[in-house]
Inverse folding.
């Protein structure tokens, strides 16, 4: 039939005899017979020549005239090709459905399950996670040095936390950070930035913020956010490959306190519970609504950036302010005038000092602008 066979071990071409036997192609060359199942064949047509190879004998080639190949193979190979393609499409469809299922689970299932999973998380596990987060974030946001003012803030936090139903030892402290924000870490750590303290007009506003964060701890909202971030990390691992560690890194980065954000329902729940904690101690809750309204409106010259930072992790402040105002009650002041003046002086900085200058001073970065900019690439979100 004019067929030539190349064994792949040399450039020599051997005369070959070929025949179809059911679903196999028999090739007799060099005194040896090879049997190639049709399902393993690949055929390339070049001009008037058919080049045939087998997946199980990749180096070997059979070359014969198309006029000899077509009558011999008939429609057998075409039928097998259609069958193979159907299997491939089924496989593609199955993989696509599986991928869609994973994405649906991560984007819908994980958030839906984050609440029950957070509540089922052992206290000891959350405490260890909180200790780890606290150590990491303290490297960027150091505790303000004024011990007397820190004790006043911690005592205010203790009074509010005493009314909460939580197994965690809640610890509130002020940190030096160039942003207006407050955030709870897993395990009961609550950090209030010095910029937020300066933004607060009254001690009642500060107490409202602390009560709000205490409520997040009590309701396990912090762990809910951590578990949601875990789902994002799991999706990244599936997309880019688990061996890269991208998913684990995403969990670490997304889990940093300044990036933990909550759903609107969780924020509203924390507002309501925070006001209840203040009422239970006889404190005024009149500070919550004005603070949220100011963050939503952008009152000061630099408050557009400040509000953006606060609202990034505390969404829908304007609507929440309305709900807080409807439920607010008068009561005793959270701090007396002397205590408030002491707290307002925490982490004092020059009014002219911008956030970049503060970071340079904090980390001992010199006047080399290029080097400083390179070292300051990782900064709090929104700055």
């Amino acid at each position: 039939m004019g067929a030539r066979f190349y064994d792949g071990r040399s450039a020599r071409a051997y005369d070959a005899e070929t025949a179809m036997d059911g679903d196999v192609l028999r090739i007799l060359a060099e005194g040896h017979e090879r049997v190639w199942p049709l399902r393993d064949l690949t055929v390339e047509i070049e001009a008037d020549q058919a080049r045939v190879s087998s997946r199980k004998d990749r180096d070997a080639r059979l070359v014969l005239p198309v006029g000899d190949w077509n009558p011999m193979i008939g429609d057998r190979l075409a039928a097998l090709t259609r069958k193979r393609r159907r299997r491939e499409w089924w496989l593609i469809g199955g993989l696509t459905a599986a991928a869609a299922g994973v994405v649906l689970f991560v984007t819908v299932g994980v958030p839906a399950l984050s609440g029950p999973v957070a509540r089922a998380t052992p206290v000891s596990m959350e405490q260890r996670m909180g200790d780890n987060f606290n150590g990491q974030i303290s490297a960027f946001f150091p505790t303000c040095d004024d011990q007397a003012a820190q004790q006043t803030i911690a005592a205010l936090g203790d009074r509010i936390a005493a009314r909460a139903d939580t197994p965690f030892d809640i610890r509130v402290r002020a940190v030096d950070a160039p942003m207006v924000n407050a955030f709870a870490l897993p395990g009961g750590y609550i950090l209030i930035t010095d910029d937020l303290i300066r933004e607060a007009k009254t001690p009642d506003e500060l107490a409202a913020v602390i009560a709000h964060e205490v409520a997040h701890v009590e309701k396990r909202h912090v762990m809910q956010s951590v578990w949601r971030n875990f789902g994002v990390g799991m999706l990244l691992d599936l997309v880019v490959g688990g061996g890269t560690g991208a998913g684990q890194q995403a969990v670490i980065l997304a889990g940093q306190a300044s990036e933990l954000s909550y759903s609107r329902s969780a924020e509203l729940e924390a507002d309501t519970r925070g006001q209840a904690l203040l009422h239970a101690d006889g404190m005024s809750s009149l500070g919550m609504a004005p603070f949220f309204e100011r963050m939503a409106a952008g009152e000061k010259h630099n408050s557009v950036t400040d509000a953006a930072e606060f609202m990034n992790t505390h969404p829908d402040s304007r609507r929440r302010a309305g709900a807080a105002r409807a439920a607010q009650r008068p009561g005793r002041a959270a701090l007396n005038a002397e205590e408030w003046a002491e707290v307002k002086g925490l982490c004092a900085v020059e009014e002219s000092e911008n956030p970049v200058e503060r970071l340079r001073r904090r980390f001992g970065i010199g006047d080399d602008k290029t080097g400083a900019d390179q070292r300051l690439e990782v900064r709090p979100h929104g700055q």
